[in-house]
Amino acid sequence: MLRRFFSYYKPYKRLFFLDFTCAVILAVLELVFPLAVGYVINTLLPDGNWGLIISACAVLLLIYVINTLLNYIVTYWGHMLGINIETDMRRRLFEHVQKLSFRFFDNTKTGHLISRLTNDLFEIGEVAHHGPEDMFIAAMTLIGAFGIMLFIQPELAIMTFIIVPIIIWLVLYFNGRMTKAANRLFTDMADFNARVEDTVGGIRVVQAFANQKHEGKLFNANNLRFREAKLISYKLIGLNHSISYLLMRLVSLFVLIAGAYYVLRKGMPHGDFVTFVLLTNIFFKPIEKINAVIESYPKGIAGFKRYIELMDTEPDVADSPHAIEVERLHGDIRYHNVTFGYEGEAKVLNGINLSIRAGETVAFVGPSGAGKTTLCSLLPRFYEIEGGTISIDGYNIRDLKLESLRKSIGIVQQDVFLFAGTIRENIAYGKLGASDEAIMEAARRARLESFIASLPNGLDTVVGERGVKLSGGQKQRLAIARMFLKNPPILILDEATSALDTETEAAIQQSLAELSVGRTTLVIAHRLATIKNADRIIVVTENGITEQGRHEELVAAGGIYSRLHEAQFGRA
Ligand SMILES: Nc1ncnc2c1ncn2[C@@H]1O[C@H](COP(=O)(O)OP(=O)(O)OP(=O)(O)O)[C@@H](O)[C@H]1O
Questions:
Q1: Is 414 in the pocket of ligand 1 (CB under 6 A)?
Q2: Most buried residue among 178, 355, 464, 557 by CB atoms closer than 10 A?
Q3: 3-state class (DSSP) for residue 360
Q4: Whose alpha carbon is nearest atom 8 of ligand 1?
Q5: Is the pTM of this model over 0.80?
């Protein structure tokens, strides 16, 4: 995992080494001050050489100026490194998540994904910057300070250094507990985000049912769990800080007493004593740094683990290695012995055989839950079939590039999803970069022209989140306009008009009829009136395709379709 973590540094090798070098110089220069003080006390003060003292101070001033510059570089560039890595990881994760299949999204909460893309990566970025740099600097400073202390007074240095193994033990002890706490914090944070996403996304339902209190309770349960997880984490941080602080102050006290003893009894020079005390304080800095890294490390690593977990989730629908690109398909569709189920052994479709000619309009009818939508969603490979083959124009859809395949299929759903942008952006989603003329032409063909003309901002009107500011009919028209612009050879109309009033439905049906001209069209419908003119009607039940033919043929046949027809329109 560490190797994978460090692979993200690769593009920033130069930045990393620059930041690292500056940090090392900074750490080394930190050691100069105690040495200089010792030198002034031991050598310059007894000589009474005022000029040299001023010169030594001038050198120190220069060092401080350099340190200030280095500090800026280490703080700004070091964070830049962390942010760059965080940004790269976020980009890669987003790209990867977009490739994951419907099956993945069926089983994943959006809030959890948002958590991965935001909080987790922020923590990883922090560790990416502070982790290696601070640990190395801390080690360098510790070794440097210890080396000088050894040189000045070996016995005292060794006695002071005894604290290090204790601190290491403490660090390891707290690290284990903090990793657990960080994991819990992340899970709770992700659940928390998922809950907010769910409640805010469904706020209209929440308010319509006047269930705010109920939602408040659920939210608060999450909120309290999150609070508890944070408290555990802070408790550990507090303990870690306090115990380290106590240990360090005890060492300070020890150095003061032992140093005084060495001065009084063993003739240690006063300057060495002061240098020793100052070095002990410098000595604590890296220990504090290590502590800070240890605190953020579990969070970063827990976040990175989740990141890797998601990055390693293979998209179960992907381009095969030899997938081919096809400019434009005609739309000759063939299902051969197709078997599919969503979960476990249960099959929604079993041995489906179906041929649809290019340009044909077929309508799927049948009881709810029989698998009409499923049958159609296998065509753009939203789900991978388990058995059999589906081909278009003789190409097995698995051999086509997903992009080619999906560019050839347009879907208009009952529940139109619009992005929270303008009408222009939403129509242009059908063909990114389309000109205003092309967008307006599509809008005209979808009979959206007069509506757009009536808006003060025209195409620039913002539709609100999920198109909340538009009526159902307007959203449908917008989806149709998008499809005119996309101009796919194959169309899937999933109960596209069943939620509309009769008049709007009739108008939209007309637009849809125009849209389907010259395209292979698969209509999933409950309202039989809208599909009477289909070239073929296919009845899907839990037993698969049980009847097919033209409307009149099926009514005359007296089977399921004729019974459905009778239920909706009465006996013919
Ligand atoms: N994403 C999914 N994950 C798991 N099961 C699903 C999923 N989508 C549909 N199903 C199940 O598959 C079966 C077929 O559903 P499908 O939506 O294809 O039926 P349908 O004939 O289109 O129904 P309707 O006319 O009510 O829309 C149902 O039992 C449904 O519960």
A1: no
A2: 178
A3: coil
A4: 374
A5: no
